[in-house]
Write a structure and sequence with these properties.
This protein has about 260 residues and is mainly alpha-helical. The chain has helices at about 65-95, 105-130, 135-140, 155-165, 165-180, 185-190, 200-220, 225-255, and strands spanning about 145, 190-195. The radius of gyration is 38 Å and the shape is elongated.
Length: about 260
Amino acid sequence: MPRVTPPPPQPGPRKIDDAVVERPVPLPPRPMATPFAATGAPVSGTLIPPRTVTVVPRTDVGHPFGYVCARFFAFVFDIALVACVVYSLAYSLIAINPLTGLPTNSQRGFDATLAIGIGIALVYVWVAEAFLGTTIWKLVFGLHVYPVRGRFVGLGRAFLRGLLRPIDLLVVGGVLALLPSHRRLGDLAGGTVVVRSPLRGFAPLIGWILVLIMCGVPFILAGTERTLASIFTFGEYTPGLIARIWLDLQLALGFLGRPH
């Protein structure tokens, strides 16, 4: 009988060792998004950002005497430019001054209309410095008004600058502007400083273009003939205005010098 070989033993179920699971390494805690905790105290390890402060550009103003003269003539020419344009338009388009009832082609009418033009010019300088930091003739001289703090000068600071300008014109402002800080009384009260324009060499070019545009406004609105007639009245009525101002100054000085 043939010999039967028993089959080899079947392997048993495979034993799988237990998996080794590594514990995750704890990450360091993330810093808080805000530098203050709920109690308001600074959190350790955080940096508190400094307060934002407007930095006024410290540029060279050039020769101190030339800088003071530029500031003075920029103001005078701004007033003269706007006042003359307003008077020329009033003379050419309005025969009777609506505020005074005087004819614009008389000495008293000339004085009143020019005074209204000067008032409008002062308002122009105030608003232009408040929102733009410069005026037409400040651009010509390459000057710009900056606030010591903040982004814009604002109406309040510009008003203080203009309010103290008569005192500064009595040599006091010029002397203070010659100092290293270059700030007159109006600048100190309003928190402003006048330095070089950020437009650099383009400022005078833009300023002269605006001067030409302002001078051309009466010719466009009133015509060449009426505008030239208004210009001729300056030669006719200005000597009388100067004589009246000089007489008023003499009377005022005489009243002050008279013993009481």
